[in-house]
Write a structure and sequence with these properties.
Chains A, B, C, D: Keywords: DNA-binding, Transcription, Transcription regulation. The structure is a homotetramer. By secondary structure, the first copy, chain A, is mainly alpha-helical. In chain A, about 55% of the residues lie in helices and about 5% in strands. Chain A folds into 2 domains: about 15-75, Winged helix-like DNA-binding domain superfamily/Winged helix DNA-binding domain (Arc Repressor Mutant, subunit A); about 85-125. The first copy, chain A, is built from 5 helices and 2 strands; from the N terminus they run αααββαα. In chain A, α2 crosses α3. At the C-D interface, α1, α4 and α5 of C face α1, α4 and α5 of D. Chain A binds a DNA duplex (15 and 15 nucleotides) through α3.
Chain lengths: ~140, ~140, ~140, ~140
DNA sequence: GTGGTCTAGACCACG
DNA sequence: GTGGTCTAGACCACC
């Protein structure tokens, strides 16, 4: 698995994991319908508790990025991914706003900020190759 | 004060307050050297706990956006504001990354995302007029 | 067989199967004494595990909806079907209660709920024709 | 609290709890905006684990029946309750269907079933008085 | 083997 | 004191 966790971070582990799985989906490293490791296997792999993995999986299932089957385990949403609906855009604006504000207060101009965003966006969709392709 | 808090939000109140003060600085609504209400006054005004206001002030002082004097009280940083140093940029990227990833996964393309960012940035620097100018 | 399984449902497969067999009995699509496919045949037909079919059959035998003979195989109860005894009614109330409560909380009025129930009941006893009559 | 749990039931404890809270909301025993016991208090009261109570609360928050605040704790949704949208109706039909089918197979006729449903619905909206009014 | 549930005890952020 | 997170270990249903 390509996931890298910072156990010291203030960002909850389950969220780091969920974020990186979403990023894997966005980049195509995780293809639609692709099976993910079982909660136990991933927990062992990452050296964290099974419940923490489970919380990440449940969160993503809830949002529609994953499906969880009785026996097949966990797979990437095989159908259409959740859309950028108004609820998501509102959340996105809410989260982006303080970041943009602080960037502005610190003297980052509009172009610098949008270019940073572009660079990020592109590095997500076209990630630098690294070790194994998926898991 | 122009601050509007959502007491039901999952975002901590002290962070909402700190964020909006930074936004006020970014927009110019809070000018360099300008005095801010005392912890007590602002807490009473907003109907929140003293400690919450204090935590927001201390956080902003720590980051260099405010100065706190025994006698003069709290004022907006009169000198140069904190710069967009590498530490800030790293934090910015870390926080922006999962947002960009989810936006991408949900089908928002690069242009839509950057335009959303631009719109936000401009609305911060040039906020719609509303009520009293500052406090 | 008219059975349709949703392998991704949170409802256990064996229960989906048992439920649809009961529905077949309720509708008359499965007549008293009628033979059912062998465990192996049905499992192959539905593409599921032997044990899953077996569990559904055993459950229904236990409740009195099926009979399982060594030689004749599995047949629909040829005699009187299990009655709506107090044990069943208690279970029915227990399962219905939270559904009625949530419907009420969500603003569905008594008439809407009972009409929904009637529609369901009728569609079960008089199902829309579809493909082969039974198996 | 008016909640009664059956620790031996096959129905998960957290679901029993969530169901009874919804029923409390439907009946008016839990009024909009009313505070609920803290997870710890309710867990102690019911003799179950705090995480089990938390799961029930989180589920209901997710569905829009509760709000969870940092300090105020948990309150009943003060605004409009979730509506009986198509997603709910689909779930309702899916859950009701096997119950109606078995009732039919066991010889309960349409009137008996709908009357049972009505009786339940009314007993929820107008529950028999019992001990303390709320918590 | 899988995920689902429950318990237990701990630490932390928040207010 | 509140909920949020994490860990740990256990049992169960399902397949």
């Amino acid at each position: 698995m390509f996931v890298e966790l910072d156990l010291q971070s203030e960002v909850p582990i389950y969220k780091q994991l969920a974020d990186q799985l979403i990023e894997g989906i966005a980049s195509g490293k995780l293809a639609a319908g692709q099976p993910l490791p079982s909660v136990r296997a991933l927990a062992a792999d990452l050296g964290i508790n099974l419940h923490t993995v489970n919380k990440a999986y449940q969160t993503l299932k809830q949002e529609g990025f994953l499906e969880i089957h009785r026996k097949k385990g966990v797979i990437v949403q095989p159908g259409p991914l959740p859309a950028a609906d108004e609820a998501f855009l509102a959340r996105l604006r809410r989260d982006l706003r303080p970041l943009a504000a602080e960037a502005s207060a610190r003297g980052l101009n509009e172009q610098e900020l949008t270019e940073l965003m572009q660079t990020l966006y592109r590095s997500i969709q076209n990630p630098p190759p690294e070790g194994g392709s998926s898991l």
